[in-house]
Amino acid sequence: MEGDIFPYRLSLPTGSLSEYAKYAKSLLNKRRFPSQVVTSISLQKASSSTDIGYSQAKFQFVRVLTDEEKIAVAKMVDWVKEYDSSMTIESLAEENEVTAYVDTETGEVIEPM
Questions:
Q1: Which of 17, 31, 56, 58 could form a disulfide with 46 if both were Cys (CB 3.0 to 4.6 A apart)?
Q2: CA distance 20 to 24
Q3: Is there a contact between 73 and 65 (Cβ–Cβ < 8 Å)?
Q4: pTM, to two decimals
Q5: 41 three-state secondary structure
Q6: Beta partners for 40?
Q7: Which residues pair with 109 in a beta bridge?
Q8: Residue 110 contacts by C-beta under 8 Å, 6 or more apart in sequence?
Q9: DSSP strand pairing (109-110 vs 101-102)
Q10: What pLDDT digit, counting tens, does each position of 34-81 carry?
Q11: Using CA atoms in the order 109, 110, 112, 113, what is the torsion angle rounded to 10 degrees?
Protein backbone atom coordinates (compact mmCIF):
# COMPACT_ATOMS: atom_id res chain seq x y z
CA MET A 1 0.00 0.00 0.00
CA GLU A 2 1.23 3.48 -0.77
CA GLY A 3 3.41 4.83 2.03
CA ASP A 4 3.77 1.53 3.91
CA ILE A 5 7.30 0.39 4.70
CA PHE A 6 6.68 -3.35 4.89
CA PRO A 7 6.02 -5.48 1.81
CA TYR A 8 2.79 -7.34 1.23
CA ARG A 9 2.84 -10.99 0.30
CA LEU A 10 -0.06 -11.74 -1.96
CA SER A 11 -1.35 -15.30 -2.18
CA LEU A 12 -2.99 -15.84 -5.53
CA PRO A 13 -5.63 -18.44 -6.27
CA THR A 14 -4.82 -20.91 -9.04
CA GLY A 15 -7.09 -19.09 -11.48
CA SER A 16 -4.94 -15.95 -11.26
CA LEU A 17 -1.48 -17.50 -11.60
CA SER A 18 -1.48 -17.43 -15.40
CA GLU A 19 -2.46 -13.75 -15.37
CA TYR A 20 0.41 -12.96 -13.02
CA ALA A 21 2.82 -15.00 -15.16
CA LYS A 22 1.78 -13.02 -18.26
CA TYR A 23 2.23 -9.74 -16.39
CA ALA A 24 5.63 -10.70 -14.97
CA LYS A 25 6.77 -11.82 -18.44
CA SER A 26 5.69 -8.50 -19.93
CA LEU A 27 7.78 -6.70 -17.30
CA LEU A 28 10.80 -8.95 -17.85
CA ASN A 29 10.57 -8.31 -21.60
CA LYS A 30 11.18 -4.65 -20.72
CA ARG A 31 14.04 -5.60 -18.34
CA ARG A 32 11.99 -4.79 -15.26
CA PHE A 33 11.35 -6.92 -12.18
CA PRO A 34 8.02 -6.87 -10.32
CA SER A 35 9.88 -5.45 -7.30
CA GLN A 36 10.95 -2.42 -9.38
CA VAL A 37 7.51 -1.18 -10.35
CA VAL A 38 4.18 -0.11 -8.90
CA THR A 39 1.41 -2.48 -9.95
CA SER A 40 -2.34 -2.03 -9.75
CA ILE A 41 -4.26 -5.23 -8.96
CA SER A 42 -7.97 -5.49 -9.66
CA LEU A 43 -10.49 -8.31 -9.78
CA GLN A 44 -12.40 -9.40 -12.85
CA LYS A 45 -15.32 -11.84 -12.94
CA ALA A 46 -14.49 -15.11 -14.66
CA SER A 47 -16.05 -18.53 -14.94
CA SER A 48 -14.65 -22.04 -15.11
CA SER A 49 -15.28 -24.54 -17.88
CA THR A 50 -18.12 -25.88 -15.72
CA ASP A 51 -19.60 -22.37 -15.46
CA ILE A 52 -18.61 -21.76 -11.85
CA GLY A 53 -18.01 -18.06 -11.24
CA TYR A 54 -14.90 -16.74 -9.52
CA SER A 55 -12.78 -13.60 -9.32
CA GLN A 56 -9.55 -13.45 -11.27
CA ALA A 57 -6.76 -11.00 -10.44
CA LYS A 58 -5.69 -8.61 -13.21
CA PHE A 59 -2.35 -6.81 -13.05
CA GLN A 60 -1.57 -3.44 -14.59
CA PHE A 61 1.71 -1.56 -14.69
CA VAL A 62 1.44 1.89 -13.07
CA ARG A 63 4.97 3.25 -12.99
CA VAL A 64 8.63 2.50 -12.37
CA LEU A 65 9.80 3.12 -8.81
CA THR A 66 11.83 6.26 -8.14
CA ASP A 67 15.54 5.82 -7.39
CA GLU A 68 14.83 6.45 -3.70
CA GLU A 69 12.06 3.81 -3.71
CA LYS A 70 14.31 1.31 -5.52
CA ILE A 71 16.97 1.65 -2.81
CA ALA A 72 14.41 1.11 -0.04
CA VAL A 73 12.85 -1.86 -1.85
CA ALA A 74 16.25 -3.47 -2.56
CA LYS A 75 17.05 -3.37 1.15
CA MET A 76 13.66 -4.86 1.98
CA VAL A 77 14.05 -7.60 -0.67
CA ASP A 78 17.40 -8.59 0.88
CA TRP A 79 15.85 -8.59 4.36
CA VAL A 80 12.88 -10.74 3.25
CA LYS A 81 15.18 -13.23 1.49
CA GLU A 82 17.29 -13.53 4.64
CA TYR A 83 14.21 -13.90 6.82
CA ASP A 84 12.66 -16.51 4.51
CA SER A 85 15.89 -18.53 4.37
CA SER A 86 15.93 -18.72 8.16
CA MET A 87 12.40 -20.12 8.27
CA THR A 88 12.53 -23.81 9.07
CA ILE A 89 10.03 -26.17 10.59
CA GLU A 90 12.20 -26.28 13.69
CA SER A 91 12.42 -22.49 14.05
CA LEU A 92 8.68 -22.13 13.58
CA ALA A 93 8.06 -24.84 16.16
CA GLU A 94 10.32 -23.04 18.65
CA GLU A 95 8.66 -19.67 18.05
CA ASN A 96 5.11 -20.97 18.20
CA GLU A 97 5.64 -23.93 20.51
CA VAL A 98 4.29 -26.26 17.87
CA THR A 99 4.63 -29.91 18.85
CA ALA A 100 4.03 -31.37 15.38
CA TYR A 101 3.99 -30.35 11.74
CA VAL A 102 1.38 -31.59 9.26
CA ASP A 103 2.46 -31.96 5.65
CA THR A 104 -0.41 -30.28 3.77
CA GLU A 105 0.16 -32.42 0.66
CA THR A 106 0.24 -35.85 2.29
CA GLY A 107 -1.48 -35.23 5.62
CA GLU A 108 1.47 -36.90 7.36
CA VAL A 109 2.09 -35.72 10.93
CA ILE A 110 5.79 -35.04 11.47
CA GLU A 111 6.98 -34.82 15.05
CA PRO A 112 9.83 -32.35 15.72
CA MET A 113 13.18 -33.87 16.61
A1: 56
A2: 6
A3: yes
A4: 0.62
A5: strand
A6: 60
A7: 102
A8: 89, 100, 101, 102, 103
A9: antiparallel
A10: 989 999 999 999 888 888 888 899 999 999 999 998 888 888 888 878
A11: 140
